[in-house]
Design goal:
Number of domains: 1
Number of strands: 5
Radius of gyration: 11 Å
Distance between the termini: 12 Å
Low-confidence stretches: none
Bound molecules: zinc ion
Structural class: alpha+beta
Order of helices and strands: HEEEEEH
Helix content: 10-25%
CATH architecture: Single Sheet
Largest sheet: 5 strands, antiparallel
Mean pLDDT: 87
Shape: globular
Length: 64
């Protein structure tokens, strides 16, 4: 996914900036600890479908 596109995406819960995981398959809101999937270069920004992360999972995530 082109960097420029995800640079403008914000978290639907807090409007905060999102970070992309190293594998390029997820966007992370570190404030809400929400992980949004990117399928076929299309981010799924539905909060209910985002994964709630625990603190440990957050620490293990490799970000770009
Ligand atoms: Zn957020």
């Amino acid at each position: 996914m082109k960097k420029a596109i995800y640079d403008v995406l914000v978290c639907p819960a807090c409007n905060g900036k999102l970070k992309m995981t190293k594998d390029g398959h997820h966007l992370l809101c570190s404030f809400d600890k929400l992980l949004f999937d990117i399928n076929d270069n299309i981010p799924n920004m539905v909060i209910e479908q985002a994964k709630n992360l625990g603190t440990e999972e957050m620490e293990q995530l490799e970000l770009r």
